[in-house]
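A further point concerns the way the authors explain their paired sequence and structure data. An entry of this sort, consisting of the sequence and the corresponding backbone structure tokens, reads as follows:
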Amino acid sequence: VVALGTSLPELVVSVIASLNGQPDLAVGNAVGSNLFNITVILGIAALVATLPIRGMVVKLEWPVMFLASVACVLVSRDGVIDRLEAATFLAALVAFVAYSVHLARREVTAEEASGLAAEVAHLTIRSPGKEAALAVAATVGGIALLILGGKALVVGAVTLAEAAGMSERFIGLTVVAAGTSAPELATSVMAALRKQSDIAVANLIGSNVFNILGILGVAGIILPLQVSPDLLHHDMAWMVGTAVLLLVLMVVRKSLSRPDGLILLAAYGGYFVSLLRG
């Protein structure tokens, strides 16, 4: 739930960019967000507090993220993510979410169930009509603001690229990706401060799964996405490589601490330098 919610800005921006005929921005935003999530945001969260690796992160979430990343590379080899491939991405996302819900319902403990019941007890709606209307208004308003913000970000990014002589790919991978990843940054850092390491790590891995399967799936169904050779051979390769780096750190260390955070941040520094040189 957290991962899907924090990835909505990436979805809006990539869909708008796709509709505007800017595939480098659409794909670059998704790929760049994945790189930014794993290296910068998880790196910062690890600097804030040590993040123990527990649960199904290594056994389920990471493998799904890695397979989605590799699948993205494979379907992009012909230079386009067509509607059939995008639909397959979406179907895979639905299957992953359904399986995750199944596991969560099966493995929830009595202590977790009672704790959740206590937390939501005060949220009972007392006046359904009024509170429901407010909830609908807030939802509609939030969606409208999200779309307006997405349009403004795309227009601003394209204008910035033209003014600075940079490519839409570069802006999508850096400025736009960092901007749309702000919810993930806030969520994971707050979770780290509250010692909720499962949320901090799973939020970012889940967001990465959604970025590939959900965002590229939706944008690709609306309009097939052209993938430039630079995105395929450079940026997607870094995306897969940082995923492998994360696995090594999680398996070897059993937790992500300050040294691991510095390693992840250094990896993004290396990527950014290679992007500038390219």
Summary: The chain has a mean pLDDT of 86.
